[in-house]
Amino acid sequence: MSAAEWQIVWFTVWVAALSTLTILPIGLALAFALARGNWPGKSIVETFITLPLVMPPVATGLILLTVLGKHGGGGWFDFRIVFTWRAVLLALSVMSLPLLVRSARTAFEEVNPRLEQIARTLGAGGWRVFFTITVPLAGRGIIGGMLLAFARALGEFGATIMVAGNIPGKTQTISLGIFENVTIGQNAQAYHLLAASVVLAFIAVWSSEFFLRRKKTA
Amino acid sequence: MNFRVMKRLVLASLLCGSLNLRAADITVFAAASLSDVLTKIGANFQAQTGINVEFNFGASSLLAQQIEAGAPADIFFSADEAQMARLENDNLTDPATRKSILANSLVVIIPNDSALQIKSANDLTNADVKQIALADPKAVPAGVYAKAWLEKMQLWPAIEPKVVPTENVRAALAAVASGNVDAGVVYKTDAAISKNVKITYEVPRADGPDISYPMALVKGSLQPDAAKKFLNYLSSKEAGQVFTQYGFLLRE
Q1: pTM of the model
Q2: How many domains does chain A have?
Q3: Nearest alpha carbon to residue A17 among A133, A147, A127
Q4: pLDDT tens-digit readout, B206-235
């Protein structure tokens, strides 16, 4: 693999990891609210979060481009979002959020609320209960969800190309690199990136399987 | 509507579909920059001959790749000689039918509401020009031409970091029209299509590369006679007038 190819692989892993960390706080908050709360509009929020999972990624990308482009909200910031790495981060975050929320939600639902109540009767506050009881008990499901979200982010294509373009060295991820190399007939480079993506996807999915399975037997 | 009626309708529509296929249909794979003008010429041709012309527009490099992969094209109409040579070397087009009838030129465009002053190639290096949309300069003809021009001006190293490569020249046009990039380099004929961009600098033909559009019959064509008819029509005076109307230059 050439230096340019390593750069693409490194950038993809870096931005996918960053997007997973970015969505973690909001993802967990949403998952917990959906698992425990019973509030008006819950099913609507749930549907909205799931939309990027079922909509064509290109359509999600177009929404982001419209919202963040110069004639949308993008004009409010003094830095540019579209066609920069920030747009890649955003596209990956939006596309992978549903996977994290769904896994974490199931994990939260499986935590026995009595354990939380007991902690509370022993004097622990809401945050303390959440971080010392709920999250550790749901931990494997949360980590599994993070790995799934990370794997989804690694392979994102449609939304990214719409809102971030395909700029070598700046916004080009493995998927976009494969696409560009094939269209211009550089098959060798495409195969190098293909190999990298297979290895990365294998690691991500295999470790998420590991965490999800361990949870069942635990 | 009951089920039986529906079934008949489906059957009837299937039959019509297969009848349509029987009429002479040709498929032309053509550069994105030709999309408006060829749609018009194709309609004129069909009105005269009854031969239906279907188009697949895209970056010539992508179309060449598709034809290499076995896509059913009858004619390839490229925006540069390199992509045509690529297919000819693979023995996929008929060299005897190859002809280059058109020329074009490059322009620098900015969004309509932009206040940028770009009056020379050198102005593209200004700090307020942050992102410049080009068709992918690695392969897509419009980008390859733009890169060749900027290399000739010895500005490419300064401009390359600002480049937002797009799938084809029309995508570069759209990126400028949406206001999401500061400027773009496209063909003069593309700039005329959009109301949301304005030409701020025309590349003198002496500065830029020779932009040439070759066309040829694809060897695997199932309708070679109809396709040759259309190739001849494209070189006719009548088609030439439409090309000129859309801003293309005819070579002699």
Answers
A1: 0.81
A2: 1
A3: A147
A4: 999 999 999 999 999 999 999 999 999 999
